[in-house]
Design brief:
Order of helices and strands of chain B: HHHHHHHHHHHHHHHH
CATH architecture of chain B: Up-down Bundle
Number of strands of chain A: 0
Distance between the termini of chain A: 47 Å
Shape of chain A: rod-shaped
Radius of gyration of chain A: 18 Å
Radius of gyration of chain B: 23 Å
Structural class of chain B: mainly alpha
Distance between the termini of chain B: 46 Å
Strand content of chain A: under 5%
Helix content of chain A: over 70%
CATH class of chain B: Mainly Alpha
Largest interface: A-B, 32 and 44 residues
Structural class of chain A: mainly alpha
Oligomer: heterodimer
CATH topology of chain B: Cytochrome C Oxidase, Chain A
Number of domains of chain B: 1
Number of strands of chain B: 0
CATH superfamily of chain B: Cytochrome c oxidase-like, subunit I domain
Number of helices of chain A: 1
Chain lengths: 45, 533
């Protein structure tokens, strides 16, 4: 597995961390909305 | 000169003063401490409810509580122990240890870390305030199955909102763990050099992000069914209450692994340390953890075999559930192989890790029994299920947390704790937890249903035994509090390495107590051979 040396540059690594956090947060919101929409489809079947 | 040294030391270790240090905390160690103290408080609150349950069940007939209040105790005991005690304890340990183990100065997102923690007191104030509403606290079980949960009184929106807040807190905590491990590792620390606690927490965090929104979606739909005229789970409007069970357990089963995977990580660190041998099969441990996490998404309906599903469905969920025994077996055999021909010693962390190994495995075996669909028809909703999941969660998850606390407490406080008291705590807890839960297998196999305040007289003897075990276990946890209090106040000075074992993590390279700001410059591990392979 490749060496991750992101923390050679703390500023860059924090920027990458914030970007990944944003993606993960959006995934969580998408799952929340997705499961409700899926249930709407199922219930209106 | 001495004065100058002291001054420098204080500058380096500068802590904010007063209540602001805690309210506006961004330091991972402070937030970790708050999480752990919160978890301990909730452990006693949920434990007090458990003692109420065991008090009522000490003998048949109604003794102390009315049945509605008894059901509230059962429901809130579960919600508090899962969301208030075990999960925050893991997040507390993650906060304290992950930055220290990956060589980072702090968690990647310290302010979000603060929000994650401070949401919790509000969430639990809402949940617990429901005890004072018309109709009392939620009493339909922590699974909130409709239509029963929809019959709750004014407690209903408080509970739903509290669960949303707990979920938001968990998701933010999980995001922080992932981005810290992925982006803040010291140079040269490849993923396969990570300590197992970080690995298991990383996988746990992905599980949390995947399933907490599912729980939030399910309870949002309960809310709209209750107040806004939807019929997601109401057959009268074309909905299906069984759909709630599917959605709930799609969250609920991975949740079980959220509660236990970090314990696997801690045990995977403690056993090599006190066996004085590298962990047997490090890579296999990582892949086994990932396999368990994957399988946790495809087994959910084993919680609901009796709702009436097609034979193919039963067979699929039975088989997929049994598959979990393979990666779990890999772990148990690897821990055992790590000890094989090791130079073992039995300090308190090792004692708790060994108890975990034996007793969690008992919970695993009863889980295999429950996985067998036709047998589950007999076990469903009996005390056998209660015995099973308490073996997994108490001498499993809770002992894992205690093993971790006993392992790292001297690193946190800078003092060794009272070993005699710790061993007393271990032996009294380990014996009493078995007296508490083992008889519940017999009660379940004999047909005693769960979630009832009264029972047939044939179940009296083992219920009495179980209650005695429960009270001894509950009060023996006061030893843990005394020990932590003493260790925080003083005691023999802990060395940086703390234990005379084979510890390889970066946390043992910093002073004891760990300085308020550690790894302000990342350690460089490039070219350093890892100790796992």
């Amino acid at each position: 597995m490749s060496d991750n040396d992101a923390n050679h540059d703390p500023v860059a690594s924090r920027r990458k961390a914030r970007r990944l956090a944003l993606v993960l947060g959006l995934v969580a919101i998408a799952l929340y909305v997705g499961f409700i929409l899926m249930s709407v489809l199922q219930a209106s079947h | 000169m001495a004065h100058a040294d002291t001054h420098d030391h204080h500058d380096h270790d500068h802590k904010p003063a007063g209540i602001g240090r805690w309210l506006f905390a961004t330091n991972h160690k402070d937030i970790g401490t708050m999480y752990l103290l919160w978890a301990l408080f909730m452990f006693f609150l949920g434990g007090a409810m458990a003692l109420g349950i065991r008090l009522e069940l000490f003998k048949p007939g109604m003794q102390w509580f009315d049945p509605g209040f008894y059901n509230s105790l059962v429901t809130n005991h579960a919600l508090i122990m899962i969301f208030g005690a075990v999960m925050p304890a893991w997040v507390g340990l993650a906060n304290w240890m992950i930055p220290l183990q990956v060589g980072a100065p702090d968690m990647a997102l310290p302010r979000m870390n603060n929000y994650s923690f401070w949401i919790l007191p509000f969430a639990f104030t809402l949940l617990l305030s429901s005890f004072f509403t018309a109709g009392g606290a939620p009493a339909g079980g922590w699974t909130l199955y409709p239509p029963l949960s929809l019959q709750a009184g004014d407690s209903f929106p408080l509970t739903i909102f509290a669960i949303h807040m707990m979920g938001i807190s968990s998701i933010m905590g999980a995001i922080n763990v992932i981005v810290t491990i992925m982006n803040m590792r010291a140079p040269g620390m490849t993923l396969l050099k990570l300590p197992l606690f970080c690995w298991t927490w990383l996988i746990t965090a992905y599980l949390l992000i995947a399933v907490m929104p599912v729980l939030a979606g399910a309870v949002t739909m309960l809310l709209t069914d209750h107040y806004f005229g939807t019929s997601f789970f109401n057959p009268a409007g074309g909905g299906d209450p069984v759909m709630f069970q599917h959605i709930f357990w799609f969250f609920g089963h991975p949740e079980v692994y959220i509660l236990i995977l970090p314990a696997f990580g801690i045990v995977s660190e403690i056993i090599p340390a006190f066996s004085r041998k590298p962990l047997f099969g490090y890579d296999a441990m990582v892949y086994a953890t990932a396999s368990i996490a994957f399988l946790s998404f495809i087994v959910w309906a084993h919680h609901m075999f009796t709702v009436g599903m097609p034979l193919a469905g039963q067979t699929f969920f039975m088989m997929s559930t049994m598959l979990i025994a393979i990666p779990t077996g890999v772990k148990v055999f690897n821990w055992t192989a790590t000890m094989w021909k090791g130079s073992l010693s039995f300090e308190p962390p090792m004692l708790f890790a060994l108890a975990f190994l034996f007793l969690f495995t008992i919970g695993g075996f009863s889980g295999l029994m429950l996985a067998i669909a036709p047998a589950d028809f007999q076990y469903q909703d009996t005390y056998f299920v209660v015995a099973h999941f308490h073996y997994v969660l108490v001498p499993g998850a809770v002992f894992g947390i205690m093993a971790g606390v006993y392992y790292w407490l001297p690193k946190w406080t800078g003092h060794m704790y009272n070993m005699t008291l710790a061993k007393w705590h271990f032996w009294v807890s380990t014996i009493s937890v078995n007296v508490l839960f083992f008889p519940q297998h017999f009660l379940g196999l004999a047909g005693m249903p769960r979630r009832i305040p009264d029972y047939s007289t044939q179940f009296t003897d083992w219920n009495m035994v179980s209650s005695v075990g429960g009270f001894v276990f509950g009060f023996s946890q006061l030893l843990f509090v005394v020990l932590i209090w003493q260790c925080a106040r003083g005691g023999a000075k802990a060395t940086d390495k703390v234990w005379d074992g084979m510890m390889t993590g970066l946390e043992w390279t910093v002073a004891s107590p760990a300085p308020y700001h550690s790894f302000t410059e990342a350690p460089d591990l490039t070219g350093v051979a890892d100790s796992h392979h």
